[in-house]
From TrEMBL:
Pfam families registered for this protein in UniProt: Hydrolase (PF00702)
Ranges that cross the membrane: none
InterPro entries attached to this UniProt entry: HAD-like_hydrolase_sf, HAD-like_sf, HAD-SF_hydro_IA, HAD_sf, PGP-like_dom2
Listed name of the protein: Haloacid dehalogenase
Protein backbone atom coordinates (compact mmCIF):
# COMPACT_ATOMS: atom_id res chain seq x y z
CA UNK A 1 0.00 0.00 0.00
CA UNK A 2 1.29 3.51 -0.78
CA UNK A 3 2.06 5.96 1.98
CA UNK A 4 -0.96 7.57 3.59
CA UNK A 5 0.32 11.00 2.66
CA UNK A 6 2.85 12.27 0.20
CA UNK A 7 3.71 15.55 -1.45
CA UNK A 8 2.65 15.85 -5.06
CA UNK A 9 2.54 18.86 -7.41
CA UNK A 10 -0.83 20.58 -7.61
CA UNK A 11 -2.66 19.24 -10.66
CA UNK A 12 -4.71 21.26 -13.09
CA UNK A 13 -7.83 19.30 -12.14
CA UNK A 14 -9.23 16.74 -9.72
CA UNK A 15 -11.86 14.20 -10.71
CA UNK A 16 -13.97 12.74 -7.92
CA UNK A 17 -16.02 9.62 -7.66
CA UNK A 18 -19.28 10.37 -5.85
CA UNK A 19 -20.53 7.45 -3.74
CA UNK A 20 -18.11 6.48 -0.99
CA UNK A 21 -15.79 9.36 -1.85
CA UNK A 22 -17.73 12.61 -1.49
CA UNK A 23 -21.13 11.33 -0.43
CA UNK A 24 -22.20 9.06 2.42
CA UNK A 25 -24.34 7.01 0.07
CA UNK A 26 -26.01 4.90 2.73
CA UNK A 27 -27.71 8.00 4.18
CA UNK A 28 -30.21 7.90 1.33
CA UNK A 29 -29.51 4.60 -0.43
CA UNK A 30 -30.64 2.19 2.28
CA UNK A 31 -34.01 3.76 3.11
CA UNK A 32 -34.64 4.21 -0.64
CA UNK A 33 -33.66 0.58 -1.28
CA UNK A 34 -36.06 -0.89 1.27
CA UNK A 35 -38.89 1.38 0.11
CA UNK A 36 -38.27 0.35 -3.52
CA UNK A 37 -38.63 -3.33 -2.68
CA UNK A 38 -41.80 -2.68 -0.70
CA UNK A 39 -43.23 -1.10 -3.85
CA UNK A 40 -41.93 -3.88 -6.12
CA UNK A 41 -43.76 -6.42 -3.97
CA UNK A 42 -46.93 -4.33 -4.07
CA UNK A 43 -46.72 -4.21 -7.86
CA UNK A 44 -46.13 -7.96 -8.13
CA UNK A 45 -42.64 -7.55 -9.59
CA UNK A 46 -40.80 -9.16 -6.68
CA UNK A 47 -41.62 -11.94 -4.25
CA UNK A 48 -39.94 -12.79 -0.99
CA UNK A 49 -37.66 -10.72 1.24
CA UNK A 50 -35.60 -7.74 0.20
CA UNK A 51 -32.12 -8.88 -0.92
CA UNK A 52 -29.45 -8.25 1.75
CA UNK A 53 -28.30 -4.64 1.81
CA UNK A 54 -24.69 -5.84 1.54
CA UNK A 55 -25.42 -6.66 -2.11
CA UNK A 56 -26.30 -3.10 -3.03
CA UNK A 57 -23.58 -1.54 -0.86
CA UNK A 58 -20.98 -3.89 -2.34
CA UNK A 59 -22.09 -2.92 -5.85
CA UNK A 60 -21.49 0.80 -5.50
CA UNK A 61 -19.26 2.06 -8.28
CA UNK A 62 -20.60 -0.42 -10.81
CA UNK A 63 -22.79 0.43 -13.78
CA UNK A 64 -26.48 0.05 -12.97
CA UNK A 65 -26.98 -2.98 -15.18
CA UNK A 66 -24.23 -4.79 -13.27
CA UNK A 67 -25.66 -3.71 -9.92
CA UNK A 68 -29.02 -5.31 -10.64
CA UNK A 69 -27.36 -8.47 -11.96
CA UNK A 70 -25.81 -8.78 -8.52
CA UNK A 71 -28.76 -7.65 -6.41
CA UNK A 72 -31.51 -9.38 -8.42
CA UNK A 73 -29.94 -12.25 -10.36
CA UNK A 74 -32.43 -13.88 -12.72
CA UNK A 75 -34.95 -11.04 -12.52
CA UNK A 76 -36.84 -9.76 -15.56
CA UNK A 77 -35.83 -6.63 -17.51
CA UNK A 78 -39.16 -5.09 -16.42
CA UNK A 79 -38.33 -5.62 -12.76
CA UNK A 80 -34.86 -4.13 -13.14
CA UNK A 81 -36.17 -1.08 -15.00
CA UNK A 82 -38.80 -0.49 -12.34
CA UNK A 83 -36.25 -0.98 -9.56
CA UNK A 84 -34.07 1.67 -11.26
CA UNK A 85 -36.97 4.12 -11.38
CA UNK A 86 -38.05 3.56 -7.79
CA UNK A 87 -34.57 3.68 -6.33
CA UNK A 88 -33.73 6.93 -8.11
CA UNK A 89 -36.99 8.65 -7.21
CA UNK A 90 -36.81 7.56 -3.59
CA UNK A 91 -33.24 8.84 -3.29
CA UNK A 92 -34.11 12.17 -4.90
CA UNK A 93 -37.05 12.55 -2.52
CA UNK A 94 -34.82 11.90 0.47
CA UNK A 95 -32.22 14.37 -0.80
CA UNK A 96 -34.89 17.05 -1.13
CA UNK A 97 -35.84 16.31 2.49
CA UNK A 98 -32.24 17.01 3.52
CA UNK A 99 -31.31 13.46 4.49
CA UNK A 100 -28.18 13.06 2.35
CA UNK A 101 -24.81 13.71 3.98
CA UNK A 102 -21.32 14.38 2.66
CA UNK A 103 -18.33 12.85 4.45
CA UNK A 104 -16.84 15.04 7.13
CA UNK A 105 -14.67 17.81 5.74
CA UNK A 106 -15.73 17.40 2.11
CA UNK A 107 -17.34 20.82 1.68
CA UNK A 108 -14.47 22.71 3.35
CA UNK A 109 -11.85 20.77 1.38
CA UNK A 110 -13.60 21.38 -1.95
CA UNK A 111 -13.86 25.07 -1.10
CA UNK A 112 -10.12 25.22 -0.38
CA UNK A 113 -9.19 23.37 -3.58
CA UNK A 114 -11.47 25.59 -5.63
CA UNK A 115 -9.90 28.64 -4.02
CA UNK A 116 -6.45 27.37 -5.00
CA UNK A 117 -7.53 27.26 -8.63
CA UNK A 118 -7.90 23.49 -9.02
CA UNK A 119 -10.60 22.60 -11.55
CA UNK A 120 -13.05 20.19 -9.90
CA UNK A 121 -15.19 17.54 -11.60
CA UNK A 122 -17.33 14.55 -10.66
CA UNK A 123 -16.92 11.32 -12.63
CA UNK A 124 -19.50 8.74 -11.53
CA UNK A 125 -21.01 5.56 -12.93
CA UNK A 126 -24.39 6.64 -11.53
CA UNK A 127 -27.50 8.06 -13.15
CA UNK A 128 -27.49 11.69 -14.28
CA UNK A 129 -30.41 12.72 -12.07
CA UNK A 130 -28.88 11.12 -9.01
CA UNK A 131 -25.40 12.62 -9.47
CA UNK A 132 -26.70 16.11 -10.12
CA UNK A 133 -29.28 15.77 -7.36
CA UNK A 134 -26.66 14.85 -4.74
CA UNK A 135 -24.32 17.70 -5.66
CA UNK A 136 -27.14 20.23 -5.72
CA UNK A 137 -28.78 19.05 -2.47
CA UNK A 138 -25.52 18.99 -0.50
CA UNK A 139 -24.66 22.58 -1.40
CA UNK A 140 -21.35 22.07 -3.20
CA UNK A 141 -22.42 22.60 -6.82
CA UNK A 142 -20.65 25.96 -7.12
CA UNK A 143 -17.23 24.33 -6.65
CA UNK A 144 -17.54 22.02 -9.65
CA UNK A 145 -16.84 22.92 -13.25
CA UNK A 146 -18.86 19.97 -14.55
CA UNK A 147 -20.50 16.70 -13.47
CA UNK A 148 -20.00 13.58 -15.59
CA UNK A 149 -22.10 10.45 -15.18
CA UNK A 150 -22.36 7.20 -17.10
CA UNK A 151 -26.12 7.73 -17.10
CA UNK A 152 -25.81 10.97 -19.03
CA UNK A 153 -23.00 10.04 -21.41
CA UNK A 154 -23.78 6.35 -22.00
CA UNK A 155 -20.22 5.21 -21.33
CA UNK A 156 -19.52 1.51 -20.77
CA UNK A 157 -16.81 1.98 -18.15
CA UNK A 158 -15.35 4.67 -15.94
CA UNK A 159 -12.20 4.51 -18.06
CA UNK A 160 -14.24 5.77 -21.01
CA UNK A 161 -16.07 8.37 -18.92
CA UNK A 162 -12.84 9.85 -17.59
CA UNK A 163 -11.26 9.82 -21.04
CA UNK A 164 -14.26 11.75 -22.40
CA UNK A 165 -14.08 14.29 -19.58
CA UNK A 166 -10.36 14.90 -20.03
CA UNK A 167 -10.74 15.33 -23.76
CA UNK A 168 -13.71 17.68 -23.65
CA UNK A 169 -12.14 19.95 -21.07
CA UNK A 170 -8.57 19.90 -22.42
CA UNK A 171 -7.11 18.70 -19.13
CA UNK A 172 -3.42 17.81 -19.11
CA UNK A 173 -2.72 16.91 -15.46
CA UNK A 174 -5.27 15.54 -13.01
CA UNK A 175 -5.88 13.35 -9.99
CA UNK A 176 -8.52 10.65 -9.95
CA UNK A 177 -9.94 10.45 -6.42
CA UNK A 178 -12.09 7.45 -5.51
CA UNK A 179 -12.73 4.40 -3.37
CA UNK A 180 -13.23 1.54 -5.83
CA UNK A 181 -11.17 -0.51 -8.27
CA UNK A 182 -13.01 1.19 -11.14
CA UNK A 183 -11.54 4.52 -9.99
CA UNK A 184 -8.02 3.11 -9.82
CA UNK A 185 -8.40 1.60 -13.30
CA UNK A 186 -9.86 4.82 -14.74
CA UNK A 187 -6.98 6.85 -13.35
CA UNK A 188 -4.24 4.44 -14.34
CA UNK A 189 -5.46 3.90 -17.91
CA UNK A 190 -5.80 7.63 -18.46
CA UNK A 191 -2.37 8.47 -17.06
CA UNK A 192 -3.62 10.21 -13.91
CA UNK A 193 -2.38 10.25 -10.33
CA UNK A 194 -4.72 8.04 -8.28
CA UNK A 195 -5.80 8.94 -4.75
CA UNK A 196 -7.42 5.99 -2.97
CA UNK A 197 -10.12 6.83 -0.42
CA UNK A 198 -10.11 4.31 2.40
CA UNK A 199 -12.95 5.38 4.67
CA UNK A 200 -16.30 4.31 3.19
CA UNK A 201 -16.09 0.60 3.99
CA UNK A 202 -17.86 -0.56 0.81
CA UNK A 203 -14.86 -1.91 -1.02
CA UNK A 204 -13.33 -5.38 -1.08
CA UNK A 205 -9.79 -6.16 0.02
CA UNK A 206 -7.21 -5.13 -2.58
CA UNK A 207 -9.50 -2.84 -4.55
CA UNK A 208 -7.24 0.18 -4.09
CA UNK A 209 -4.05 -1.64 -5.06
CA UNK A 210 -2.32 0.52 -7.65
CA UNK A 211 -3.16 3.88 -6.13
CA UNK A 212 -0.43 6.49 -5.61
CA UNK A 213 -1.57 7.96 -2.29
CA UNK A 214 -4.16 6.60 0.13
CA UNK A 215 -6.18 8.76 2.48
CA UNK A 216 -8.20 7.76 5.52
CA UNK A 217 -10.28 10.96 5.61
CA UNK A 218 -11.20 13.37 2.83
CA UNK A 219 -9.37 16.45 4.24
CA UNK A 220 -6.08 14.50 3.98
CA UNK A 221 -6.26 15.34 0.28
CA UNK A 222 -4.83 18.76 1.13
CA UNK A 223 -1.86 17.18 2.88
CA UNK A 224 -0.89 15.44 -0.35
CA UNK A 225 -0.39 18.76 -2.14
CA UNK A 226 3.00 20.46 -2.18
Amino acid sequence: MPATTGKLPQPEAMLFDLDGTLFRTETVLLPAYYAAFDRLREEGLHEGPTPPEERILGSLGMLLEHIWERVLPGSSPETRRRADELLLQNQLDLLEQGQGKLYEGVADTLRELHGRGVRLFVASNGLEGYVKGVIRATGVASYFEDLYSAGEHGTRSKVDLVRLLLSRHGIRTAWMVGDRSSDVEAGRRNGLTVIGCDYAGFRSAGELDGDDVRIGAFPQLLAALE
